[in-house]
Design goal:
Order of helices and strands: HHHHEEHEEEE
Number of strands: 6
Shape: elongated
Number of helices: 5
Oligomer: single chain
Largest sheet: 6 strands, mixed
Strand content: 25-35%
């Protein structure tokens, strides 16, 4: 009886392992076949399933970060191409909060759209912008910018700024700008 239960447990574990393998294929995640064989041969089925799910989670996070890097690169290119409002519409969440240094954040897409439009209308001469560095992690990204322009109210501006973006549902939910006066 005990041997029969042991065989049933092994069959169930093997079935779970095969289903996990199918899930990996369905999600287009890569896993080394030797990884499976090591644990199957040693009859460590439960460990193989657990390790497969860990790999699924890690590879899914990696895909998410790569996707975020792609979005960030596209966002930055739109800004560099002078399409700031197009970038705003494409990549900013409806509930976005945007904050200059430690000032109070402006909340909501409509309020921030108006703030961006006013800023752009006050640029009298635009001499350039450049992305100096960027990084993306788990729903967070950073961009170091170099800006050079003349503003109606602020005069000539030539400075470096760091933008920190927090992402939700594939869009920026909070952005904070850090720069000196």
């Amino acid at each position: 009886m005990r041997e029969k239960n042991n065989i049933q447990i092994k069959l169930i574990a093997l079935l779970l392992l095969l289903l996990t393998g199918q899930l990996l294929l369905h999600l287009n995640l890569i896993i080394d076949q030797r990884f499976f064989l090591t644990y199957i041969i040693g009859e460590h089925y439960a460990m193989a399933v657990v390790l497969c799910f860990i790999k699924i989670i890690n590879q899914t996070k990696l895909k998410t970060m790569n996707n975020l890097t792609e979005k960030l690169t596209d966002l930055n290119q739109l800004v560099l191409d002078g399409k700031m409002l197009e970038a705003f519409e494409k990549y900013y969440h409806d509930d976005v909060a945007m904050q200059e240094n430690s000032n109070t954040a402006t909340i909501g897409k409509e309020a921030n759209r108006m703030r961006e439009q006013i800023f752009l209308e006050n640029i009298t001469e635009f001499r350039g912008a450049a992305v100096l560095n960027m990084a993306a992690g788990d729903n967070v990204s950073f961009v170091e910018w170099k800006y050079d322009y003349t503003h109606k109210e602020w005069g000539m501006r030539n400075y470096t700024q760091v933008s920190k973006q927090q992402w939700k549902d594939g869009k920026i939910i909070h952005e904070q700008f850090f720069y000196g006066n």
